[in-house]
Write a structure and sequence with these properties.
The chain has helices spanning about 50-60, 85-90, 110-120, 125-140, 155-170, 185-205, 215-220, 240-245, 250-255, 265-270, 300-315, and strands spanning about 10-20, 25-35, 40-45, 65-70, 75, 95, 175-180, 205-210, 225-230, 230-240, 285-290, 295-300. By secondary structure, the chain is of the alpha/beta class. The chain has a domain at about 10-105 and about 175-245: Rossmann fold, CATH 3.40.50. The strands form two sheets. The chain has an eight-stranded mixed beta sheet, with helices on both faces. The longest helix is centred in the middle third of the chain and has 18 residues, at about 185-205.
C-alpha cells in the first residue's frame, strides 16, 4: 500500500447496531470505528456471531445504525438519503454474499441475473451493448458464453460464486463488500475465487471490505486486518504486522487455531483459548489505542503499556 496515496474512501465512525427493544434488546455492534483506504483490502475477522456481517450490512444500509455514522467519499450514507443519492450508493457499493445458492434467483437465467443491475440503472445504450457487457464479464470471471442460458441450479458452488462476482463487477462499482465469499466453497476452488478478486482489484482499482473467520485466507488477501470480538474491535494492524506481533489475547487465540500443514507440528501445537475474564477493567476502562505503526489495540492503560513493551521491546511475538 506504500505506493498508493492513502485516500479514505469509507469511514465507519462510532457505529452501534442494536436489535430488538426493552428486555429483548441486543447490541450486536458497539462503538466501532475504522477507515478504509482507496484501493486496499481491509478484512474484518472474528468468530461466528462477532458482528462482522452486521457491520457489512450496516454499510450496505440493510441494517440501520442505532448511533454513529458511515461516510462514503466524504458524504454521510447512513440514515435517510434522497432517491438520487440512494441509487448512486447502490451503484457504487456492491456486495458479494456468503451463500451463492441463496443469493441467486433460481428462476432466472444467468444472463438475466448478471443483467439485472444494468436494467435497473440503465447502464447500456442498446441491447447489443448490454449483451456485450454481460459476455465480457462472463469471460472475465472464467465462465463460458453457453452458461448464460442456464439456471443457477445447473452450476457448482464455485461457478455460482463466479456468477455472483460477475453480477457485482458488471455494475462497475468502486467498493465491494465480500461477506465470507469463499467459506461455502471447496478448498481447491477458494484460491481461484481469491485470485479473481485480486485480479479485478488490480485491473479496476477496486476497494474491498473482506469479511471472514479464517485468518490464514485473510493473510493472503488483506492489506490491513480488523479483529472483532462480540461487536467490539480488539485489534487493527497491517496484515504482516498482525501476524508478526499479535498483541491482544483474542487475536492470539484466532492465530493459534490456524491449521498447520505438518501433522507432527499440528498435533503438538498449543491451542490458545480466549477468556474475557482475564481482563481486570475495575481500575481503568479499556479503549482502542494507537501504539504507532498503524497498530491499534483494545485495552486499559496497564494493558497498553504491556502491549507496547511486547511490540517495541524485543523479538517478534510469532505464534
Amino acid at each position: 500500500m506504500a505506493d498508493i496515496e492513502k485516500e479514505v474512501i469509507l469511514s465507519v465512525k462510532n457505529l452501534d447496531v442494536v436489535f430488538g427493544k426493552g428486555k429483548k434488546k441486543f447490541k450486536a455492534v458497539s462503538n466501532v470505528s475504522f477507515d478504509i483506504y482507496k484501493g486496499e483490502t481491509l478484512s474484518l475477522v472474528g468468530e461466528s456471531g462477532s458482528g462482522k456481517t452486521t457491520i457489512g450490512r450496516a454499510i450496505m444500509r440493510i441494517n440501520p445504525c442505532s448511533s454513529g455514522e458511515i461516510i462514503y467519499k466524504g458524504k454521510r450514507i447512513s440514515g435517510k438519503l434522497s432517491r438520487k443519492e440512494d441509487r448512486e450508493v447502490i451503484r457504487r457499493i456492491q456486495m458479494i454474499f456468503q451463500d451463492p445458492s441463496a443469493s441467486l434467483n433460481e428462476r432466472a437465467t444467468i444472463e438475466y441475473i448478471i443483467s439485472e443491475g444494468l436494467y435497473n440503472f440503465h447502464l447500456f445504450k442498446d441491447n447489443k451493448e448490454r449483451i456485450a457487457k454481460v459476455e465480457q464479464i462472463t469471460k472475465d470471471v472464467g465462465l463460458l458464453p453457453e452458461h448464460l442460458t442456464r439456471y443457477p441450479h445447473e452450476f457448482s458452488g464455485g461457478q455460482r460464486q463466479r456468477v455472483g462476482l460477475a453480477r457485482s463487477i458488471v455494475m462497475e462499482p468502486e467498493f465491494i463488500i465480500a461477506d465470507e465469499p469463499i467459506s461455502a466453497l471447496d478448498v481447491s476452488i477458494r484460491a481461484q475465487v481469491l485470485n479473481l478478486l485480486k485480479k479485478f482489484q488490480r485491473e479496476r482499482g477496486l476497494t474491498y471490505l473482506f469479511i471472514a473467520h479464517d485468518l490464514s485466507i485473510v493473510r493472503f488477501i488483506s492489506d490491513r486486518i480488523v479483529v472483532i470480538y462480540k461487536g467490539r474491535i480488539m485489534e487493527i494492524a497491517e496484515s504482516e504486522e498482525l501476524f508478526a506481533y499479535p498483541l491482544h489475547p483474542y487475536t492470539k487465540s484466532l492465530i493459534s487455531a490456524i491449521p498447520v500443514p505438518d501433522p507432527k507440528i499440528e498435533k503438538s501445537k498449543k491451542l490458545l483459548i480466549y477468556d474475557p475474564a482475564m481482563h481486570d477493567y475495575s481500575e481503568s476502562e479499556p479503549e482502542l489505542t494507537d501504539l504507532g505503526n498503524g497498530h491499534l489495540v483494545f485495552g486499559n492503560a496497564k494493558e497498553i503499556e504491556k502491549y507496547k513493551e511486547i511490540r517495541f521491546g524485543g523479538a517478534k511475538n510469532v505464534i
